[in-house]
């Protein structure tokens, strides 16, 4: 894997042929200008990157099976908005491959199962996935809210750095325990066996309805491609994740 990364950087090609579907996570300052232009700008950027890098076209119409050829389509790229105070814009691009996406799972657990049930669901999901999501993976776990909220939390958890911990100790303890349990499954890199099945587990949560306990598990493959940049109010750009 490390040799693959070295060669990809040296040759200037993606580290995996599946460059995924693209989501953009925006933290938009409430005083940032021209917000209405951002969706078109991001669609243009996606199309340009598809041609220039190149990226594999992965936007397929679910009814006709037709591939758009440029990673542009209905709700593609997907844009997640978060309004914050200020006049800057932070953009994170998250390309996510089909193998890791296909292994994701949502469970609507009985509330009485509690934390023990959450742990079992996460570990069972990892075991069922086996080698499909290209381990060692990064796991995002979303707990609570509703079905859609849990899934969104789990995916957003993938944006956190490997090795980071939740700021609430009870959640951080769960992250550590889940990481240990998952690595005890023995699935290992690419499913070939070993004690490194996950590189990290990130948990986010929301308060839930008394009758519901949604739990979502999002897999990200070992490649874990992600890029972030901040656009300042004066038009200057700070690259937060990569050297330019």
Explain what you see.
The structure is a single chain. By secondary structure, the protein is α+β, with helices and mostly antiparallel strands. It has two domains: 2-97 and 224-239, no CATH class; 99-220, no CATH class. 30% of the residues lie in helices and 25% in strands. It is built from six helices and nine strands. A five-stranded mixed β-sheet has the order 2-1-3-8-9. A four-stranded mixed β-sheet has the order 4-7-5-6. The longest helix has 16 residues, at 114-129. It is globular. 30% of the residues are buried.
Summary of the model, kept short:
This protein has six helices and nine strands, in the order αβαββαβαβααββββ. With 244 residues, the chain is α+β, with helices and mostly antiparallel strands. It folds into two domains: 2-97 and 224-239, no CATH class; 99-220, no CATH class.
Core attributes:
244 residues, alpha+beta, 2 domains, four-stranded mixed β-sheet, globular
Q: Mean pLDDT across all residues, rounded?
A: 96
Succession of helices and strands: HEHEEHEHEHHEEEE
Total discrete domains: 2
Which regions contain 5 or more consecutive residues with pLDDT less than 50?
none
Span from first to last CA? 23 Å
Strand order across the biggest sheet? 2-1-3-8-9
- Strand count: 9
Shape: globular
What structural class is derived from the secondary structure elements?
alpha+beta
Radius of gyration: 19 Å
How much β-strand is present in the residues? 15-25%
Main beta sheet: strand number and arrangement?
5 strands, mixed
Helix content: 25-40%
Number of helices: 6
Topology (elements, then pairings):
Blueprint: H1 2-11, E1 21-29, H2 38-52, E2 78-84, E3 89-96, H3 98-102, E4 105-109, H4 114-129, E5 137-143, H5 147-157, H6 169-183, E6 198-205, E7 213-220, E8 227-231, E9 237-239
Parallel strand pairs: 1-2, 5-6
Antiparallel strand pairs: 1-3, 3-8, 4-7, 5-7, 8-9
Helix pairs in contact: 4-6
């Amino acid at each position: 894997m490390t040799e693959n990364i070295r060669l990809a950087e040296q040759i200037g090609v993606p580290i995996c042929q599946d460059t995924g579907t693209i989501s953009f996570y925006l933290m938009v300052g409430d005083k940032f200008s021209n917000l209405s232009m951002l969706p078109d700008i991001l669609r243009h950027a996606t199309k340009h990157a598809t041609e220039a890098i190149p990226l594999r076209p992965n936007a397929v119409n679910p009814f006709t099976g037709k591939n758009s050829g440029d990673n542009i389509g209905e709700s593609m790229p997907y844009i997640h908005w978060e309004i914050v105070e200020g006049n800057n814009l932070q953009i994170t691009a998250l390309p996510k491959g089909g193998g890791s996406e296909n292994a994701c799972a949502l469970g609507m657990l009985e509330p009485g199962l509690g934390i023990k049930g959450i742990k079992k669901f996460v570990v069972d999901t990892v075991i069922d996935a086996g080698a499909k999501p290209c381990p060692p993976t990064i796991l995002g776990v979303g707990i609570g809210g509703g079905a859609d909220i849990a899934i969104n939390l789990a995916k957003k958890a993938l944006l956190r750095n490997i090795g980071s911990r939740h700021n609430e100790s009870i959640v951080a303890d769960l992250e550590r325990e889940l990481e240990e349990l998952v690595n005890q499954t023995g699935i290992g890199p690419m499913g070939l066996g070993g004690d490194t099945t996950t590189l990290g587990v990130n948990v986010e949560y929301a308060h839930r309805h008394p009758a519901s306990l949604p739990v979502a598990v999002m897999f990200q493959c070992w490649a874990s491609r992600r890029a972030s940049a901040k656009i300042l109010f004066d038009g200057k750009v700070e690259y937060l994740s990569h050297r330019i």
